């Protein structure tokens, strides 16, 4: 009989008493003991892990978007591009993840839906922070976080900063494009309103990509991100309709009708509108 293969003979580290192991480094004890189903339904574990993994990817997305914005502000455009490409890939990953959740039928979800109480992704502060960071700002959506001072502060702090799109438009202004003063001095807490001077600037970039290559690339990185983000919204609303039909959400909104309305949100409106004019 051949002897069982022992990787230790080739140098694999096998003893971790007093040394940092994989489990220690990744904090897996905390992560893998954070699943607390509130029912005996088999599918609740899928539901919890799907949300938790989405939140982990959102954490990384925030890390990358904030850094990309910082690099844009400092003129390190190339570094920002790399990070924005990664963010689009993160959303692609999140999009693929819906396939796993879609294996849960309405009958299976109904078995544990009551256990969620009024909790809902609507209260995901990281999702809201992503929206605020890229540019979709709505102070009304601070309210579900009022009971948590730390989260409210994090969201408020973001509203005081220029969003990723504000920064991109300032890059246009720095490059010499005539951007209206109302836009450059706008109240950062307010939603972005599509502006003709911004659209004219992007249009010029698209009319001569060779001359404005970096800005052209920036515009396409932003569109790429929004494209994947829109797909996430679409996948979400389709999954929701498939699982709960037109019932109200646990978060209290009209459910599918609320989410359909969110499909109309444009993060970078001028970048979409100019396409009709080319
Ligand atoms: C069967 C699975 C799911 C159902 C039935 C569902 C249902 C809903 C509904 C009805 C809403 C509207 C708010 C409300 O009234 O509750 C909502 C919002 C939301 N859900 Fe889900 N959801 C599901 C899975 C997920 C997953 C896996 C995530 C990932 C984190 C997620 C994240 C969100 C977010 C971020 C919102 C807020 C969207 C916005 O305000 O634009 N949902 N969900």
Automatic annotation (TrEMBL):
Name of the top EC class for this enzyme: oxidoreductase
Cofactor detail note: Binds 1 heme group per subunit.
Keywords in alphabetical order: Dioxygenase, Heme, Iron, Metal-binding, Oxidoreductase, Tryptophan catabolism
Cofactor(s) listed in the protein's UniProt record: heme
Ligand binding (substrate): 47-51, 109, 113, 250
GO molecular function annotations of the record: L-tryptophan 2,3-dioxygenase activity
Pathway assigned to this chain's UniProt record: Amino-acid degradation; L-tryptophan degradation via kynurenine pathway; L-kynurenine from L-tryptophan: step 1/2
HAMAP family: T23O (MF_01972)
Functional note: Heme-dependent dioxygenase that catalyzes the oxidative cleavage of the L-tryptophan (L-Trp) pyrrole ring and converts L-tryptophan to N-formyl-L-kynurenine. Catalyzes the oxidative cleavage of the indole moiety.
Name of the featured protein: Tryptophan 2,3-dioxygenase
Lineage: Bacteria, Pseudomonadati, Pseudomonadota, Alphaproteobacteria, Rhodobacterales
């Amino acid at each position: 009989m051949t002897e069982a293969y022992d990787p230790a003979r080739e140098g694999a580290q096998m003893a971790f008493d007093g040394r940092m192991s994989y489990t220690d480094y990744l904090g897996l004890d905390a992560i893998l003991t954070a699943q607390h189903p509130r029912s005996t339904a088999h599918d609740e574990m899928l539901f919890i892990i799907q949300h938790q993994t989405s939140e982990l990817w959102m954490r990384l997305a925030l890390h990358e978007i904030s850094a990309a914005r910082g690099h844009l502000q400092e003129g390190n455009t190339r570094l920002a591009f790399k990070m924005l490409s990664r963010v689009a890939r993160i959303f692609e990953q999140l999009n693929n993840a819906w396939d796993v959740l879609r294996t849960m039928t309405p009958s299976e979800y109904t078995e544990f839906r009551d256990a969620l109480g009024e909790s809902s992704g609507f209260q995901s502060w990281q999702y809201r922070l992503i929206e605020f960071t890229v540019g979709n700002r709505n102070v009304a959506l601070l309210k579900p976080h009022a009971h948590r001072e730390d989260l409210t502060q994090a969201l408020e702090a973001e509203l005081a900063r220029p969003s990723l799109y504000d920064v991109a438009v300032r890059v246009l202004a720095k490059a010499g494009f005539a951007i209206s003063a109302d836009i450059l001095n706008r109240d950062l807490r307010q939603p972005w309103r599509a502006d003709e001077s911004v659209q004219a600037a992007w249009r010029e970039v698209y009319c001569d990509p060779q001359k404005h290559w970096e800005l052209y690339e920036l515009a396409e990185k932003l569109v790429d991100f929004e494209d994947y983000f829109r797909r996430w919204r679409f996948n979400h609303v389709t999954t929701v309709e498939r699982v709960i039909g037109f019932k109200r959400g646990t978060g209290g909104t009209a459910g599918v009708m609320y989410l359909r309305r969110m499909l109309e949100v444009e993060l970078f409106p001028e970048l979409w509108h100019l396409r009709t004019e080319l």
